[in-house]
Amino acid sequence: MPFNDVLKEWEDFPFESFIRSVKKENIRRILNSDRIQLLDFLSLLSNSATEYLEEMAQKAHYLTLQHFGRVIQLYIPLYISNYCTNECAYCGFNMQNKIGRKKLSLEEIEQNAVEIAHHRMRHILLLTGEAPKITPLPYLKEAVLILKKYFASVSIEIFPMLEEEYKILKEAGVDGLTIYQETYDRLIYDRVHLSGRKKDFLYRLEAPERGARAGFRSVNIGPLFGLGDPIREAFFAGLHADYLQRKYPEIEVSISLPRLNEAEGNFKALHPLDDRHYVQTLLAFRLFLPRVGITLSTREKGDFRDSLIPLGITRMSAGSLTTVGGYENRNGALKETPQFEIQDHRSIEEIIEVIKSKGYEPVFKDWDNF
Amino acid sequence: MNKPDTDVLKIGNKIFHNRLIIGTGKFSANHLIPAVIEASGSEMVTVALRRMDFQAGEENILNFIPKNVIVVPNTSGARNADEAIRIARLARELGCGDFVKIEVIHEMKYLMPDNEETLKATAALAKEGFVVLPYVQPDPIIARRLEDAGASAVMPLGSPIGSGRGLKARDFIEMVLENTNLPVIVDAGIGKPSHAAESMELGADAVLVNTAIATAEDPVSAGRAFALAIQAGRIAFISGMMMERKTASPSSPLTGFLNEH
C-alpha cells in the first residue's frame, strides 16, 4: 500500500480522545515492554507520559548505547544556491524575500570543500533551494563529483526529484537523501506553501521512496515542528519512518526533529513545541524505533544540543553555515541571509570537545566508496 | 594463573594465545582501545573499513591499535556479496592484511546476517587468498558450506547484535560446533562475562565482544573481566570437567552389570 494511503487511513483517527484516554498505567506498561507498537508510540507522545520523562530518557539512553554505542557521527551542511521558485511562508529563501541570491560556481564549491575538509569533516550534506533552471541536474552532478574528491559521504537535501534523476546523483556518488515533509497535515501544507512546485504534497511525500529505489543508502526524513499539531506531526513522521524501514529494509532510515526558529520573513510558529515536549518527542522516537538514527542540526541552541546527546542522538552537524557557501570566508558569510538562523555557532573543534566531554567519540567517517 | 601454553588457536597462519576478540565500533573514545587491549590481552580486533580514515593522520582508528595485534577489517555496510568482496579488496589495498570478517546485512531493523550472500563472498575471497571469517546465523549446514568454500573460521551469532542477551542460539551453536572443523568464534549478543564463559565451556574457540565492553562505565575492567571469563571457560572445556550433558550419565550405569565378573 502506498504511504499516502496509509496516511489517509490514520488521518481520521480520533487523536484527541485517544490521547486523553492514555493513563499512567498504560505508560508504565509500555516502558516495561520490549516491543513498542504504533499506538504505544502515540501514548508516549501524550501528556500522561510527560511525567515519565526521566524513565523514558533512561531507556532511550540504554537503547541508543546498545545499538549505536558511545559515538556521535558528525556532518556539515553546504548550501550551494539560494535561488528558489517556492514561496514557503516559514523559509528564509522564500522567493518573495528580497535577499541577495547566489549560486556557487564549481570553483567556489571546490574552495568550500577544501576549507571544510581541513577541519576533518568527512560527511557532507549538499543543499539548494528549488530552482531547477538555475541549479539543474547536470550542475548538481558536477557539484557531487567535486565533493566526492574530498568527502567519504555526500548526502543531498534538495528539491524532490524523479527516481531517474536520483539515480544519476547516486551514480555520481551521493549515498544519502534528506527530505523533510515539513508537515503531514495536508491543509496546513497547502496554506504555508503559497506557490511553487513544492505545493505538490504527494510528490514530496513519495520522494523518500523514490530515493530508496534509486539506491541511496540512507534516507533521512522529518517534520518541521511549528507548522502542524506536534503530536500528530510526530506520529505521522514515526509512521512514515516505520513504513520506510519495513518496505525498504536495506535502507538506513533516520529522522530529524527540526523546530521552526526565526527565519527571514518573520513567520511565527503555528504550533510551537517547547523544550520539554521536544525532549519527550525525541525519546518517544527512540523507544519506538530503537535502530533508527536521529539527526540533530544547529537549529537548536548549543547547551540544549549538548544535553540531548545522551538521549538518543546519533548524528550532529557542527560548524554549520546556512548561507550559500561561506566556509572559505566565514566573516563575510555572517552578513548574508541564512536559510534559517543557526542557534549553535560553535566551531567544529568546540563541538568535538563537548562530545568528548560527554563521554562520546566523535566519528568523522562512517562510510566509504563501496 | 596457569594457562595451558600449548592450547593455542590457529586461524589462517596466525597463532593466538588469547581467545577474546574485540570489536571497536562503539567506544566512547578511541584512546581507550589500547588500554582495553592491554588489560584483556586480546590479540585480535575488528575494525569496520567504513570507519577507517586514512586522511585523518594520527586520529585514524588504526593508530590506536598496537602493532602486535591483528586487525581484522570487517565489511560493515555491505548489503550483498559483491559489496563485501569490494570492501575486502579495498581493505587489502589499504594495507590491512589478509584477514577479513565478512558481514553482509541488508535489513536494518534486526541487522541479521545474510548467510547466502556471506557464503558467496567467502568462496570468492578465499580463492583470492583472504583469511575469511564469516559472520552468520548459526546453522550447521552453512557452517559446512563455509568450510568447503574455504573459510578460516565461522562466526555464529549468540543472539541479536547489540542485544546482550547471551546465547539465545545456544542449541544451534552446539550444532555448528559438532559439525565443523573450523574454529568457531561466537560473535554478537554477548552481554556478560558469564555468556562468554558459557560459549567457551560449550567448546567455542573464541568470542568476539564489542558493545558490552565498549559501553561499560569502565571498558578497561570490562575487557579484563571478559578475558578472564573466556580463559576460565576454555580451561573448563579442555579439563574435561563434568558439564551439563544432553543425555544423562548416571553414577550407577544401567549396563554396568556387563562389566561385572
Approximate strand percentage of chain B: 5-15%
Q: Fill in the CATH topology of chain A.
A: TIM Barrel
Largest sheet of chain B: 5 strands, parallel
Instruction: Please compute the radius of gyration of chain A using only Cα atoms.
Output: 20 Å
Whole-number average pLDDT of chain A? 92
| Proportion of helical residues of chain A | 40-55%
* Form type of chain A: globular
Commentary on this structure:
Chain A is of the alpha/beta class. Chain A has one domain: Aldolase class I (TIM Barrel), CATH 3.20.20.70. Chain A has helices at residues 3-11, 15-21, 24-32, 38-44, 47-50, 53-68, 106-118, 137-148, 163-172, 186-192, 201-205, 207-214, 230-247, 275-288, 302-308, 330-333, 348-357, and strands at 71-81, 87-88, 123-128, 153-157, 174-178, 193-195, 218-221, 252-256, 293-296, 315-317, 361-363. Chain A has an eight-stranded parallel barrel with strand order 1-3-4-5-7-8-9-10, surrounded by five helices. In chain A, helix 9 (163-172) links the parallel strand 4 (153-157) and strand 5 (174-178). The model of chain B has no long low-confidence stretch (mean pLDDT 89). In chain B, helix 1 (32-40) runs parallel beside helix 8. In chain B, strand 7, helix 4 (140-149) and strand 8 (155-156) form a beta-alpha-beta unit. Chain B has a five-stranded parallel β-sheet with strand order 5-4-3-10-9. The longest helix of chain B is centred in the C-terminal third of the chain and has 21 residues, at 219-239. Chain B has a single domain, classed as Alpha-Beta Barrel (TIM Barrel), CATH 3.20.20.70. Chain B has eight helices and ten strands. The N and C termini of chain B lie far apart (44 Å). Chain B is an alpha/beta fold and 261 residues long. In chain B, 49% of the residues are buried.
Topology:
The complex is a heterodimer of chains A (370) and B (261).
Chain A: H1 3-11, H2 15-21, H3 24-32, H4 38-44, H5 47-50, H6 53-68, E1 71-81, E2 87-88, H7 106-118, E3 123-128, H8 137-148, E4 153-157, H9 163-172, E5 174-178, H10 186-192, E6 193-195, H11 201-205, H12 207-214, E7 218-221, H13 230-247, E8 252-256, H14 275-288, E9 293-296, H15 302-308, E10 315-317, H16 330-333, H17 348-357, E11 361-363
Parallel strand pairs in A: 1-3, 1-10, 1-11, 3-4, 4-5, 5-7, 7-8, 8-9, 9-10
Antiparallel strand pairs in A: 2-6
Chain B: E1 9-11, E2 14-16, E3 20-23, H1 32-40, E4 44-48, E5 70-74, H2 81-93, E6 99-102, H3 115-127, E7 131-136, H4 140-149, E8 155-156, H5 170-179, E9 185-187, H6 193-202, E10 206-209, H7 211-214, H8 219-239
Parallel strand pairs in B: 3-4, 3-10, 4-5, 6-7, 7-8, 9-10
Antiparallel strand pairs in B: 1-2
